[in-house]
Amino acid sequence: MTTLNGHFRRYGFEGDLEKALNRVDFFRIFHTMALRYGFEHFGVLQLANEHEPSTLAGRLMLHDLPAGLAETYDKRHRLNDSALFKSFYRSTISTVWRTGDRLQNGAAQGADFLEQVGFDMALAVPVHAVNGTRYIVLFLGDGTDIGSTEHFKVCYEANCAFDYFHRQVPANKAGMGLTPRETEILRWISYGKTASEIALIVSVSEHTVNSHTATILKKLDVVNRTQMVAKAIREQIIQ
Questions:
Q1: Does pTM surpass 0.90?
Q2: Cβ of 177: how many Cβ atoms within 10 Å?
Q3: Greatest CA span in the chain, whole angstroms?
Q4: Region for 118 from its dihedrals, namely left if φ exceeds 0, alpha if ψ lies in -120 to 50, beta otherwise
Q5: Is residue 155 classed as helix, strand or coil in its secondary structure?
Q6: Phi and psi, residue 126, nearest 5°
Q7: For 176, which DSSP code?
Q8: Euclidean distance between CA atoms 203 and 167, whole angstroms
Q9: Which of 6, 11, 189, 201 sits 20 to 30 Å CA-CA off 72?
């Protein structure tokens, strides 16, 4: 893989990144990073429009959260309503969140999300792809705090790892083999259009739309439209 930015070489961090080829490799890199700085889990989330309904499971591109945690959270809570989620649209500064932190008015300062997922501390590191799409690298654990030096280090490493991850995995998989017509139909499905409505919009038969939809499901390796749209957003096939 071609290195686009080698400035971080002076810190001796490039070895694992330049060898990473797939999701498994980057999973290990982010997981090891989390443990090295006193966290237990990580998640890479893609951000959308602030007012667009978001689910935790649907926004996670890569993570090592306990099995079923994201899905359970989504059944009980709305990610958009959490103080943590709202903070992503007020600032791009990396932030530490702890369950004991409260605002002056007594409102939860990210504690609502932490209590809901069962952790005591989180570190949210805003990152972005070269196309401008915004993401968050989220570290979760039961620690009480993180020192400033460690905070700066993990933010830098998270940015480097995300840059490599995005260029090596999602960017190289863009489209996942979908044809332009399949991508167009997928986009209309994401807007909530029915097969009959899409047939009128793209001037084909409803049978053809359903046939394309079945092919998209197979190519994305999902079982229904909800999973299809969530994966397409996660893989940046559609925005």
A1: no
A2: 11
A3: 61
A4: left
A5: helix
A6: -70, 135
A7: T
A8: 36
A9: 189
